[in-house]
Amino acid sequence: MACLKTGPSGASELAKTTGIQRTHIYDLAEKLADKGFLTQTRKEDKKIFAARSPEEILAVKRIELKKFADSIPELEKLARQKNNRPKIFYYEGGRELNKMMEGSIWGEGECLIWGDDLFYTKDEKEYQKKNIAQRLKTNTRCRVLAAVSNATLESQKKDKKELRETRLLPRNLFESRVNLTVYKNKTMVANHAKDFGFAVEDEDFADTLKAIFELIWKSGRVI
Prior knowledge:
Number of strands: 10
Strand content: 25-35%
CATH superfamily of the largest domain: Endonuclease Chain A
CATH class of the largest domain: Alpha Beta
CATH architecture of the largest domain: 2-Layer Sandwich
Helix content: 40-55%
């Protein structure tokens, strides 16, 4: 603004006009020149700074913005390639495993679950209650496959209230030793007996497991 008012000026003149120290003026002016707001010339070994026309600056910025806009499709393609890479997270220990399950992000849509016995009995059923409460907050429905047991039969009775549909299979045909949950592009596997688990964010991985789930779901041996 000082350069616009005074015209081409040296560092000493700008220091007087702005009240900024002369040594600091050089640093500021060169930064503004690099950004295209000032031009820098020499006169008798003295640096002279002049303001570029605001209209000229605007025209240059419009050209830069158009170039950026034209490159957006290519940039978005690169971003999608990066985002499509699978993400895998490993959790070890009871506390970390609980964080994985409690950190599930629910919302619209449906989750599919292979239930293991410990999911229904761990921490005197408090673990299952926390999981259900978290899911109900976001109104997320789920379908569950599990082996027949007293705990799973008891849970099945509450299906309607807890936005769930459970199908139980004979233990000689199906008995999951891990809890596996698939929601959108995310898969979580929890081994409650050994206190470890992992989460995978990958659409292909999730879609394959969803297809396997549907095959079991539609089988004729459901109790």
